[in-house]
Amino acid sequence: AAWEFNALLLLQLLGWVFIPVYIHCHVYTMPEYLSKRFGGKRLKVYFAALTLVLYIFTKLSVDLYSGALFIQESLGWNLYVSIIVLIVMTAALTVTGGLVAVIYTDTVQAILMIVGALCLTGIGFAKVGGLEGLKEKYMQASPNITAILLSSPNLTYSESCKHHLH
């Protein structure tokens, strides 16, 4: 979730600081702005390539790996086969349907995730006895650091955790 929290702050910065500059300069992207501001096409190409490479190595690779791990665990497929299947499916969806297909897919996925999260929240609260039950059970389940250090019986942690506390 750190990605989303950082994006929240940086999108605020983008909206309040950089967007007025972009509108004033009649540009849509950072590479286009740098090209207009400092001149030359090399800087524009360099920044666009740098952005693409960083996106591939940070976001895209993590998304593919996590999706492939899910497929591997749920279907028992090879990790590399799963990655290739994800790439082929994504490329096919994007090429055949274009950006419209991607937008519709993202919208449906967002709705499904919100509905799923609300259902799980309701089920979870029902299982623990509402908000009061959650508070009560959390206070009983939360380990006391003093009890852990004094080695009293506490079933909310494993024995392998002890050596990390010293």
Describe this structure in words.
- With 166 residues, this protein is mostly helical.
- It has a domain at 131-166.
- Helix content is 81%, strand content 0%.
- It contains six helices and no strands.
- It starts with a helix and ends in a 17-residue tail after the last helix.
| Total helical segments | 6
Structural class: mainly alpha
Distance between the terminal alpha carbons, to the nearest Å?
A: 29 Å
Question: In what range is the share of β-strand residues?
Answer: under 5%
Shape: extended
Q: Helical amount among residues, as a percent range?
A: over 70%
Oligomer: single chain
What is Rg?
Answer: 24 Å
Q: Mean pLDDT, as a whole number?
A: 84
Low-confidence stretches: none
Total DSSP E strands: 0
GO biological process, one term: inositol metabolic process
GO molecular function, one term: D-glucose:sodium symporter activity
Membrane topology: Multi-pass membrane protein
Keywords: Membrane, Transmembrane, Transmembrane helix
How do the strands and helices of this protein lay out in sequence?
Layout: H1 2-25, H2 30-38, H3 42-75, H4 79-128, H5 130-141, H6 145-149
Helix pairs in contact: 2-3, 3-4, 4-5
Q: Could you name the key traits of this structure?
A:
single chain, 166 residues, mainly alpha, 81% helix, 0% strand, membrane, Na/solute_symporter_CS
Compose a concise summary of this entry.
It is a multi-pass membrane protein. The protein has helices at residues 2-25, 30-38, 42-75, 79-128, 130-141, 145-149.
